[in-house]
Design brief:
Layout lengths: L1 H9 L6 H43 L9 E2 L4 E2 L2 H30 L5 H16 L2 H27 L14 H25 L3 H9 L4 H12 L1 H17 L2 H6 L17 H8 L6 H33 L1
Antiparallel strand pairs: 1-2
Protein name: Phosphate transport system permease protein
Keywords: Cell membrane, Membrane, Phosphate transport, Transmembrane, Transmembrane helix, Transport
Main location: membrane
Length: about 325
């Protein structure tokens, strides 16, 4: 009687061969999908590199340090576009990161009523659903005039600083950075919120049990515990900012020059590709592919740095 009761309560029935085969098949299928993703990435890189090969052979590493872009003379360099890509993305993150993390804390720590949190989550998700061309149109007719007025004031009183030295005339690096901040905000907020929610409740309870206030718990316990997830969110936002095309193309000014002032017109690699690829031919196509390969490598470096930072934080 006792043996029968034990069998009913604690004995684990052996798995059938069919169940084992299904598990093995599922594992094999997921490995195939993972390898397929890596294969697609490698295939894209190889195809872009093959198309860029004539420009690589002609210009070599000088392509990365020259500022000329002259299809008539077949003279190409991408340093202004690299500069514009990195600086506009940095401006976007400088604005989006504190707002995104603050919003994530607000949504994850029950600092708002339930109904208000639901509305705020919906609005953040709605930002991600707006097409980039709509952001560009809104930037031209609404954002640029506002930022031009702000820029003129900054230039009048702080024009001695290099970043404010050029008076704004309309499109430029600063409006592009603000647009990128708005477009990356949903990514940073959503992933940071997930990272904060995943922190074990025992950490909150232990900190408060030791006498920490709610904000001390958030700033000194919760955010450090979720730091790896927050870094991943920021790096994904950086990747989105570096690759954004249409909205940035519409408001950055598309000037192939390097200017220390954030109010001056600039250009990015994505904008260069969008503006010139349709009418390009001959060596210009290869030069554009070379520029695309540079952007590919930059985003790859960003992701590698993100992984290294996350692994370093996990070891601490």
């Amino acid at each position: 009687m006792n043996i029968q009761a034990g069998n009913r309560q604690g004995t684990i029935q052996p798995r059938s061969e069919l169940e084992k085969s299904v598990d093995r098949g599922f594992i094999l299928l997921t490995r195939i999908f993972a390898l397929a993703v890596a294969g697609i990435l490698l295939w894209i890189a190889i195809q872009v590199a093959i198309q860029a090969l004539p420009a690589i052979q002609k210009f070599g590493a000088s392509f990365l340090v020259k500022s000329a872009w002259n299809p008539v003379n077949n003279d190409y360099g991408v340093i202004p576009q690299v500069y514009g890509t990195l600086v506009s993305a940095f401006i976007g993150l400088l604005i989006a990161v504190p707002i995104g993390i603050g919003t994530a804390v607000l949504l994850s720590e029950n600092l708002l009523p339930s109904s208000a949190r639901t509305v705020l989550v919906f609005l953040v998700e709605l930002l991600a659903a707006i097409p980039s061309v709509v952001y560009g149109i809104w930037g031209i007719f609404v954002l640029v005039p506002i930022l031009t007025g702000i820029g003129k004031w900054l230039n009048a009183y702080f024009g001695w600083l290099p970043i404010f030295s050029t008076p704004p005339t309309g499109p430029g690096m600063f409006p592009a950075g603000v647009i990128l901040a708005i477009m990356t905000l949903p990514i940073i907020t959503a992933i940071s919120r997930d990272a904060l929610i995943s922190v074990p409740p025992s950490l909150r309870q232990a900190a408060m049990g030791l006498g920490a206030t709610r904000w001390e718990t958030i700033l000194k316990v919760i955010i450090p515990a979720a730091f790896s997830g927050i870094v991943s969110a920021v790096m994904l936002g950086l990747g989105r900012a570096m690759g954004e095309t249409m909205a940035v193309t519409m408001i950055i000014g598309n000037a192939n020059v390097i200017n220390a002032s954030i109010f001056a017109p600039a250009n990015t690699i994505s904008s260069l590709l969008a503006n010139q690829f349709a009418e390009a031919n001959g060596l210009q196509v290869s030069a554009l592919m070379y520029a695309a390969l540079v952007l590919f490598v930059l985003t790859l470096i960003v992701n590698i740095l993100a992984e290294l930072i996350v692994l370093r934080v996990k070891r601490l």
